[in-house]
Amino acid sequence: MKKLIYAGLLFLIVQLNTFAQKETSWWYFGFNAGLNFNSLSSATASDGSTVTDMPESIVGPLSTREGCFTVATYDGRLLFSSDGSTVYDKNGSVMTNGTGLLGNYSSTQSGVAVPKPGSTTEYYVITVPQALDPDGLCYSIVDLSQNGGLGAVTSKNNVIKAGVVYENIAVVPNTNGLDYWLIHRTAQTFYVWAITSSGISTTPHQTISNTSISAASSTYQGEIGISSDYTKVFACNWAGQQVITSIFNPTTGLLSDIRISTMALASYGGTFSPNNQYLYIGSANSVSGTNQSGSLFVQTWNNLRAGSAMTLLRHGVTNAKKAMDGRLYGIESLIGLNYSKHLYVIINPDAGGSTIKYFPNYLKYESGLGLPTFAAGFIRIIPKELPFACTSHNRTYSVEVDLSGGNAPSRLTWNFGDGTAIINQTVTTSQSIYKQLHSYNNSGLYTITVIPYKSDGTSLTPITMEANIVNCTLKSNRMTRSDLLNSKQLME
Questions:
Q1: For the segment 72-88, what is each residue's pLDDT rounded down to a tens digit?
Q2: Can you give the pTM of this predicted structure?
Q3: How far apart are CA 271 and CA 276, in angstroms?
């Protein structure tokens, strides 16, 4: 009996994307302000020092006081942007059917975009309205295969949670590498919904409340944010002058251990340091004795959770966000919400933010209070064909690894699920496709697990694929072509 290998190659596209990736390389915000982190140059700060690799100040299509978000590819190509009400294509023009979404430019986080699981061209655009508007938490769909790649909004304002909701929204990847979790807070209650290839469920995956959260008037303002390891959540409670923290499990989609910290000023927006050890929170409140509106506070996550107060870091910074370069970029507004073109850069956020540079009039246009909201990470795993091979024959298995961002792995481990030794494979910056030859001795369905590891030994999301191994019989003669008799899949 001859045995024949079924020739073929599995391509598994794996985008290991987090906030350090180039999906966050375009920032549109404020009144036509913007930053492009794909175009870098040196700039002189107010203290006369030169700061290298500063993003280019650009003109954007949005005119928004607060809510804004942009979407780009893993290699930094702009796709679209929005203020929650209107979607703009990559050229800055209104996208087809792109008006009338139920977000709002005056919502703290008017919306966020996330890849639709199972699709390579569609995105969910999830929106929240301005406080006390009864439009609810909704989603629309952008399909970038329309209009020659410029996209179109193909479905609009589908309700996830009806009625009055608060001005915050966050999306975090599920550790299965396929799906996402949507997190939102209204009043004293957090909600988690599952986003899968079947859609966005209108039934919450989790509802969890804490009566220590202030529900007084105007507590609807304030951002929600996720750490880049997807395990820590913060929420700002504006009028309650609170920072709410919680633990999140990206595998189960469950929040737990909600704790409340009180701030000296109203909390508006924030971000984690790249190493997730520090939490930075900004306030848009006026500061007595200065001509500045806003103050930036900092505290380690562990100390904050243990009850320590946040420490004032700098007056003037209304809001700050982590960029793909590992720095924090903050905007300044003056007393009375007189917006400015001024930019702050926190150079060392992993060390507590002691080094801050100020760049007056850096932006081309004035900024408001809001900076872009991004999903905590994009992960796409798209198998192109089912791995199939015959027993006792080598088969090539392959993965494609995105190396464009700061979370790129340094090595891969391959476990073929048949008891053979685990293989370690080094990842280099000059190579994106990684292959392994393997032969299975027995028929069966095997799970191949590829685990990426960072240089510090931290593992990233495992990649899994199934290998269908069968006994293959070849029958042939000189008059007819060969017929491969093996599996139901190949017989059909």
A1: 887 788 999 999 999 99
A2: 0.76
A3: 9
